[in-house]
């Protein structure tokens, strides 16, 4: 049976692949060709595309094959969404940098002024994991072989590291100026040394904004006189300074050692000079991700030796960012310096058909670079293109890698979060925001859902804690989806267990209070949150197990059905099922599909029409749950089971899951808006409101 399904699916899939390949030729004619300046690294295999077909022709093919038609509809939509040929077939609408630790969404609108984007910096904290999400629309025709190309350049040194060294000498005189100016979180060092046989002047200014350290040292001496000024200003923890100065008319020795634990900066300066000879050694060693500078200068009347070592292991990587120039700014070096290409990433986006809803594509997880020298601004050229090099969109923007997120961004994001959650005020009552903890890597601060991620095995347990019955209100659903998303992005998490912190109840399903007596706007927002929860959970890439430790009606059952495996407490008091008809409401098609995909057609038919709640044993019998264990063992069995699932090669399992579930997910994605409208008009009907009211009254009466 399974073999047959897979063959059937495989056949359809191949056919669709062929159809999309056929279609590429047509597309190339219709859109402009790309000015994509990417290196040609693909081999021409002398490939001859099959005869071209229109979307309509494709839809006509095998018209009588019902299952193929369904699949085609999922992939191709029902037909062109926009007929106006002046509107591009593919419209890229926005790019989002998805990062769990980000204080808020980092999104760029690609429908507006792309020129403005060139000047805009999007900040990313160093070392964080992130993914790029692109939203795009397909309006008329299938596009195949879509690609997202991402070229990363490092800008000139102005934003990064500048070193200027000026050395001027003759037998009687030496002048040295060294300026090290790095914006990489603000370290500046200026050293000026001017000496002739009679006089030595040294000025050293070290100014680092990196937690406020400033040091100025001025030393001026001639044969009869020595002046030394040292100013040190710091509110840092752990600063040590040692200054040794020894001078007489013929000789000067100076040793300065500055040692600060604050991100490990050490400075040693040794200066030894007499009338005939000057020796200077300066060592600047900062662990702020590997910058070391050593300067050794040794001279006498006849000879000069200078050694300058600037040792940052980033030299190799960013050699083009390092220049020796006397006056970088006045020479306008930024124009003179071509930004160097650091990285080229090509992501295969795939083939897509027209539909009203936007498509979205998410890249695999990347890690932002980390370290003092890699902080700075990267210029990025993005191309949304395809195999035919059609330029669907190309734009440029800047990614700024910083030691921390921008504080202003945090404010903006907090506002964003507030507005997101003010939308979840129910009956005019704002909900507590304590659970909104985007920055918090300890995921356990949510108010309605407790998350505990065990780093030793990668298993996260999400415990519903929304008394009295874990009903899924708008804020519960929002919080659930955020946590799930966070865990999906968290590399250390490998699987998620859903369970309840409430005794005897897994979840009472959707919060009826969100549907009863509320405004159409509220109902719309609520339903969108239900959809988002389902889309996230049913299409989740990681393993999910429902540890059902209590009653699980309606939405509770749906949530369990979305998981990969269900373990239920073996207790006759607990039941599970989609009982919507008992409330006088109708489960939507994606509730139905989720049940159908689990227990089959006939059982789904009986179950939905009658609104049956199954006791644990019955649920096991019809395959609604996979295993029964004593209540006290539900969670431990779930952990054990997840362990065995984790032994399966992850990639193969994930693709298999997606193969089984994607058509169902795509169906809702293609009808999301219509489904919301349908829900709102249905649930706000007087007759339905009356049913809900009676149901609520019955619940309360039962209690009485
Ligand atoms: C195109 C249109 C599509 C429309 C599709 C709409 C889909 C909806 C899916 C749903 O999920 S609808 C919700 C269905 N849920 C239920 O039917 C469950 C109802 N509840 C129960 O059966 C029981 O409460 C329980 C879960 C078995 C627990 O029983 P227990 O005896 O322990 O507690 P109660 O005294 O019954 O309840 C305590 C308290 O909680 C209130 N409550 C219960 N369920 C809900 C709920 N789903 N939403 C809001 N409030 C709920 C109940 O009224 C009690 O409140 P009180 O004020 O303390 O009396």
> Which structural category do the helix and sheet elements fall into?
alpha+beta
Radius of gyration: 33 Å
Catalogue the unreliable spans: 1-50, 313-338, 407-445
Bound molecules: ligand LOW37U6P
Helix content: 25-40%
Mean pLDDT across all amino acids:
75
Sheet with most strands: 6 strands, antiparallel
Query: Helical stretch count?
Result: 17
Terminal residue distance = 50 Å
Beta-strand fraction estimate: 25-35%
Strand order of the largest sheet: 6-7-8-9-10-11
- Number-wise, the strands total 31
Described by the principal axes of the CA atoms, the overall outline is elongated
Describe this protein with a few key phrases.
704 residues, alpha+beta, 6-stranded antiparallel sheet, 17 helices, disordered N terminus, binds ligand LOW37U6P, Enoyl-CoA_hyd/isom_CS, Rho GDP-dissociation inhibitor activity
Description of the molecule:
- By secondary structure, the chain is an alpha+beta fold.
- It has 17 helices and 31 strands.
- A six-stranded antiparallel β-sheet has the order 6-7-8-9-10-11, with no helix packed on it. A six-stranded antiparallel β-sheet has the order 12-13-14-15-16-17, with no helix packed on it.
- Strand 15 and strand 16 (291-300) form a beta hairpin.
- Helix 11 packs across helix 12 (601-610).
- It is elongated, with a radius of gyration of 33 Å.
- The chain starts with a helix and ends with a helix.
- The protein binds ligand LOW37U6P.
- Ligand LOW37U6P binds at residues 468-469, 471, 505, 508-513, 551, 553-555, 579-580, 583, 585-588, 678-679, 682-683, 696, 699-700, 703.
């Amino acid at each position: 049976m399974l073999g047959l399904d897979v063959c059937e699916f495989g056949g359809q899939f191949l056919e669709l692949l062929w159809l999309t390949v056929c279609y590429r030729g047509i597309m190339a004619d219709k859109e402009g060709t790309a000015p994509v300046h990417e290196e040609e690294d693909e081999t021409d295999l002398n490939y001859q595309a099959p005869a071209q077909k229109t979307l309509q022709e494709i839809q006509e093919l095998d018209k009588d094959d019902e299952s193929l038609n369904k699949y085609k509809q999922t992939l191709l939509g029902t037909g062109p969404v926009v007929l106006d040929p002046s509107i591009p077939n593919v419209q890229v609408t926005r790019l989002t940098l998805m990062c769990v630790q980000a204080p808020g969404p980092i999104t760029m609108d690609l429908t507006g002024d792309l020129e403005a984007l060139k000047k805009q910096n999007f900040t990313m904290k160093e070392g964080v994991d992130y993914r790029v999400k692109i939203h795009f629309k397909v309006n008329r025709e299938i596009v195949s072989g879509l690609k997202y190309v991402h070229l990363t350049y490092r800008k000139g040194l102005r934003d990064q590291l500048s070193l200027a060294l000026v050395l001027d000498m003759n037998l009687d005189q030496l002048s040295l100026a060294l300026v090290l100016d790095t914006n990489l979180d603000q370290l500046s060092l200026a050293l000026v040394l001017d000496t002739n046989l009679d006089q030595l002047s040294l000025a050293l200014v070290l100014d680092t904004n990196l937690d406020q350290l400033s040091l100025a040292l001025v030393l001026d001496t001639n044969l009869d006189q020595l002046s030394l000024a040292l100013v040190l200003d710091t509110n840092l923890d752990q600063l040590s300074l040692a200054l040794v100065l020894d001078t007489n008319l013929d000789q000067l020795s100076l040793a300065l050692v500055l040692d600060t634990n604050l991100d490990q900066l050490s400075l040693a300066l040794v200066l030894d000079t007499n009338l005939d000879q000057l020796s200077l050694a300066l060592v600047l060693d900062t662990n702020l991700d590997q910058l070391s500078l050593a300067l050794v200068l040794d001279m006498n009347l006849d000879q000069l030796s200078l050694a300058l070592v600037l040792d940052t292991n980033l030299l190799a990587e960013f050699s083009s960012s390092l220049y020796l120039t006397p006056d970088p700014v006045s020479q306008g070096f930024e124009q003179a310096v071509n930004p160097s290409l650091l990285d080229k990433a090509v992501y295969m986006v795939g083939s897509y058909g027209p539909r009203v809803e936007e498509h979205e594509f998410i890249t695999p997880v990347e890690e932002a670079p980390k370290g003092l020298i890699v902080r700075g601004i990267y210029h990025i050229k993005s191309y949304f293109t395809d195999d035919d090099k059609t330029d669907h969109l190309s734009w440029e923007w800047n990614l700024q890698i910083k030691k921390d997120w921008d504080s202003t961004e945090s404010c903006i994001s907090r506002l964003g979060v507030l507005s997101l959650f003010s939308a979840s005020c129910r009956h005019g009552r704002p909900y507590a925001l304590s659970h909104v903890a985007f920055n918090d890597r300890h995921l356990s601060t949510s108010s309605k859902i407790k998350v505990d991620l065990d780093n030793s095995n990668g298993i996260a347990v999400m415990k519903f804690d929304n008394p009295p019955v874990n009903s899924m209100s708008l804020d519960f659903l929002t919080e659930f989806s955020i946590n799930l998303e966070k865990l999906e992005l968290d590399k250390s998490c490998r699987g998620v267990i859903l369970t309840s912190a409430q005794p005897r109840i897994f979840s009472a399903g959707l919060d009826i209070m969100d549907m009863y007596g509320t405004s159409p706007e509220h109902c719309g927002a609520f339903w969108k949150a239900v959809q988002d929860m389902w889309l996230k959970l049913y299409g989740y890439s990681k393993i999910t197990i429902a540890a059902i430790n209590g009653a699980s009606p309606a939405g509770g059952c749906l949530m369990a059905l979305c998981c990969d495996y269900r373990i239920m407490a073996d207790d006759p008091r607990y039941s599970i099922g989609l009982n919507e008809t008992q409330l006088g409401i109708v489960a939507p098609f994606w509730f139905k599909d989720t049940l159908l995909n689990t227990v089959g057609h006939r059982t789904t038919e009986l179950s939905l029409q009658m609104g049956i709640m199954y006791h644990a044993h019955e649920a096991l019998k019809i395959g609604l749950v996979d295993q029964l264990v004593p209540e006290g063992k539900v969670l431990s069995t779930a952990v054990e089971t997840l362990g065995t699932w984790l032994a399966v090669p992850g990639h193969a399992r994930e693709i298999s899951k997606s193969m089984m579930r994607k058509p169902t997910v795509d169906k809702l994605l293609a009808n999301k808006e219509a489904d919301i409208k349908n829900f709102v008009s249905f649930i706000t009907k007087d007759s339905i409101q009356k049913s809900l009211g009676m149901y609520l009254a019955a619940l309360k009466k039962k209690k009485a």
